[in-house]
Amino acid sequence: MSDKTLRATTIRCTAAAAALLLAATACGGRGADGAATSAEGACKGQQTTGITAKSIKLGGIYPLSGPTSAYGQIPKGVKAYFDYVNAEKGGVNGRRIDFTVRDDGYQPPKSVEEARRLVEEQHVFALFQTLGTPTSAAVMQYANQQKVPQVFVSSGASKWGADPVKHPWTIGWQPSYSSEGRVYAQYLKKDKPQAKVAILYQNDDFGKDLRSGFTDEIKGSGVTVVAEQSYEVTDPSIDPQMRLLAGSKADVLLDITTPKFGTQALAADANNTGWNPVHIINNVASSATVLKPVGFDRVQNIVSAAFLKDPSDPQWGGDAEMRLYKDKLGKYAPGLDSSNAFYSLGWASASAMDKALGALKCPTREGLMEAVRDLKDVHSDLLLPGIAMNTTPQDGYPLETLQLQRFKGERWNLFGEAIDTRKAG
Q1: Largest CA distance in the chain
Q2: What distance in Å separates the CA atoms of residue 98 and residue 124, rounded to the nearest whole number?
Q3: pLDDT by residue (tens digit) across 126-143?
Q4: 173, 200, 224, 216: which is closest to 4 by C-alpha?
Q5: Where is the signal peptide (predicted)?
Q6: Does residue 204 sit in helix, strand or coil?
Q7: How far apart are CA 304 and CA 124, in angstroms?
C-alpha cells in the first residue's frame, strides 16, 4: 500500500473516532434540555496551565548547537514576531506571549528532557515549534501522555497528522515530506519522463518520508531510481556517498538532506565536473545560507519546492507582508539579516500560531487543539499566493500545497502553478 493510500485510509478510518474525541473536548456543550451551554460553562474543567487573562506561555525546542544548529536561527524570527505582537498589538486577544526557547542539540533524549523542563518546571501552555523529525517524535509520546499541545511541529513528517486519535495533542504545520516527494516525481514525469535518479537521503523519518513519497509517485512511469545512499546525522561528511552516487551516472540527483549536508552535497556535485545531474534539493536545505557557501554561480538551475515567499527575492519588495516582516524584524531583532529564510520561516510560523490563538473559543489547552484542527483557508504571513492553512478533525496537515522553483542568478525563481497535493494524482 502506498504512503498516499495509507494516509487516505487512515484518515477515513479515524474520522468517526476523531469527531467523538473533539466532541469530548470541544468548547460547545448542551444542557439536559438540549439547549447550548455558555462558552464559559463549557470551558470549565479544561486545562488552563500557562494561560491567564493577560499572558500565554509557549515553549520551543530547537537545535541551537550540534550538527543541525543552522536551524537555531528560526526561533529568532519567532521571537521577533511575538515581540512585535506584544509591543504593538497588546499580544493576542489581550494576552502577551512569553516564548521560551530550549536547546536539544538535535538529540532525541535531550528533546524529551527539555520538554519536561518546559512543561513541569516552567508550566508552558503549549509546546510550539519543536524542531526536527526524530526529536519531535521523541517529544510526541510525552506530550500526548501529559495532554500538552505540541503545535505546529517544525518538520514535515507524515506522522504529525496521520493519527489524530492516537496523538490528539500533536499537529504539524509545513507541507509533509511525502507530499514534497510526490511534487518532485510529478515534475520529472512531465519534464524528464525517462529520468534515471540517484537519491541521497538522511537515514531517519525525514529522509524516508520524502523518499517514499517520491518512489510511490513514480511507480508505473519511465522514471527510475538507479542508486541510493543514506547518511546519519552524526556523520562528519557525505563525500563517500556522493562519490558512489556519481558513479551511477544518473541524470537526476534527489538530495534529501538537512542544511549542513545540503551544502556538502551541492559542493560535491559542483566539484565533480564529470557528473552533471539535474540537482533537486529538498525545501529544508534550500535556503541561501545553504547555497551561499558553495557559491551561487555553482548552484545554477538546481530545483526545489517552496510554500513561503523568499525574503531575498525582489519580486516581493512591494508586498505588504514582506515589508512588515522586514521592518519589524529590524526593529525587534536589530542586526539580523532579513533576507535569511530561516528568520522569515520563524516569522511565518509565529504568525500561524497568532492566528490559532486568536481563534480560541476556550482559553484552554483543549481549546487550542480544537482551534488548530478547525482551520478554514487561514492565511498566515509570508505564505505564497494560493496557499492557506486548512485542517479538519480528521486531517491534521495544515499546509499541503507547494510550488516548484529554480535557482537562477542569486535567487530562487518560481515556475509552474502551486500544486495542492491533496488533489494531486
Answers
A1: 78
A2: 9
A3: 999 999 989 999 999 999
A4: 216
A5: 1-28
A6: coil
A7: 36
**What grid cell was written down for 179?**
507530499
Query: Residue 79: what pLDDT?
Result: 98
> Hey, what domains does the chain have and what are their CATH numbers?
3-27+40-175+319-394 (3.40.50.2300), 178-306+405-420 (3.40.50.2300)
End-to-end CA distance of the chain, in Å?
A: 15
> 236-251: per-residue pLDDT in tens?
999 999 999 999 999 9
Burial 391-413 (b: 16+ CB within 10 A, else e): bbbbbbbbbbbbbbbebeeebbe
Q: Which residues pair with 252 in a beta bridge?
A: 197, 278
Q: How far apart are CA 331 and CA 25, in angstroms?
A: 40
Q: Indicate whether 294 pLDDT > 50.
A: yes
Sign of the C-alpha dihedral computed for residues 119, 122, 126 and 132 taken in this order = negative
**What element of type H or E holds 127?**
strand 126-130
Enter the C-alpha cell of residue 305.
519546492
What's the chain's average pLDDT? 90
Q: Tell me what pLDDT residue 363 has.
A: 97
| Angle ∠(136,65,296) on CA atoms, nearest 5 | 95
Q: Which amino acid type is present at position 101? A: V
